[in-house]
Amino acid sequence: MVDCKFEGGGGPEDVGLLALKGVVRQAFGLPCPRTLNVWWNFGSCLMLLLVSQLVTGLFLAVYYVPECDKAMSSVYYVMRDIRGGWVVRLLHASGANVMFACIYFHIGRGLYYGSYLNKGVWWSGMMLLVLSMGVAFMGYVLPWGSMSYWGAVVITSMVTILPYGSRLKEWIWGGYVISEVTLKRFFIVHFVLPFVLLSVTLAHVMILHKSGGSSNPLGLQWEHSAIPFHPYYTSKDVVGFIVVYGGMLMQIMWAPDFFMEGLNYLVIDPMKTPLSIKPEWYFLFLYCILRSIPHKSGGIIAMFGALLILAMVPYLHVGKYRSMAYYPLCQIIFWVWVGNLLVMTKSGSLFPTAVNETVGLGCTVVYFAFFLLLPVCRLGHEKAVSFKIADVKLMG
Asked: 214 catalytic, yes or no?
């Protein structure tokens, strides 16, 4: 057994420094499996991106003016008149997109390797996903362009399917229409919610450490061959940081408007709805589900059901092994599901036509069917293997 304790110097008398030293010792000396691959890097990259979003967001909040006639002007002021302001603003905007890409890779790794069996870690992660979506939506509204306005109208109107939903919508808006009061409320929530997100992230990491740390890709016992987190995985994380953040810096230098929506630069016209209202790319698969079901309430329920079924994955797991590495058919189904998500993302970005809605409905069925087929495939594979072993014994 490898000794995974972090050896530090003499402890200072100050209680705060002593506590901090204990946290660092525990984090750096955390026992880890030897076989963690690159897919485990996205969790640490998300922590880096969250810190980056907090720092750049605080800078932008200093100059942002949450008023209908000044919101977009304050964004232009940061971009044009503040030295280096355009870099900070683009880091914040692109950082949100890169962060969601890392989130989806992180969730995909958890599904493939069975990390969801650690229920506390999985559910705290799902809470982080929902909070991140809320923060991203509020941030999308703040520039107060045409797409920001109509996006706020569409999303907040979803509450009308609830009992007393119309009154709840008026309470969110601060009146009978979306106005400056709504914008100020969204700005306050967007400013406060990231600190809640940071707190839940720390709880997520603590739950992971308390439960024994990360599982290995094969889902086997690894305690007898554990290695310390530092320096083996800190060095890998540094490489991941450089690749992810360096790639984002290259994007904002060479294609600064890559993640920007052109319609959001237009002045708001509350009397004229744009022909195509669509969210950011990381919401498009949910938008595809919402749009593919004709009934408004059914579409909203299915959209939130897509997130709920992700949270319920630990209860759908059957079989002897946690990882899909032992189930070839499950691997095929998983990659079909990933491809289906890409098709849903593309479908959600296209203008709604009869063909596109039919494709979206089919993709929605495939999305939910994946979670029901996995346990069936696992049980079928194990039964086939057990029959094969029994035949070999009889032949012997």
From this structure: yes
Single-letter code of the amino acid located at 245: Y
- pLDDT tens profile 29-49: 677 777 788 888 898 899 999
Chosen CATH of 1-268 out of 1.20.810.10, 2.102.10.10, 2.40.70.10, 3.40.50.300: 1.20.810.10
Catalytic residue (choose from 92, 94, 261, 280): 280
Tokens representing 255 are: 């294609």
The pLDDT of 380-392, averaged and rounded, is: 66
Catalytic residue among 148, 237, 278, 292: 237
The one-letter code for the residue type at 386 is S
- pTM exceeding the 0.85 threshold for the entire prediction: yes
User: Among this protein's residues, is 297 annotated catalytic?
Assistant: no
- Give the whole-angstrom CA distance, residue 395 versus residue 134: 60
pLDDT, average across residues 99-108:
96
What pLDDT, on a 0 to 100 scale, did the predictor assign at position 29? 64
Compute the mean pLDDT over every residue in the chain, rounded to the nearest whole number. 86
Q: Is 237 an annotated catalytic residue?
A: yes
Q: Check: CB of residue 196 under 8 Å from CB of residue 131.
A: yes
Catalytic one among 21, 119, 236, 317?
236
Residue 70 designated active-site? no
Question: Of these residues, 70, 119, 209, 346, which one is catalytic?
Answer: 209
Nearest in space to 125 (alpha carbons), one of 52, 186, 214, 54: 214
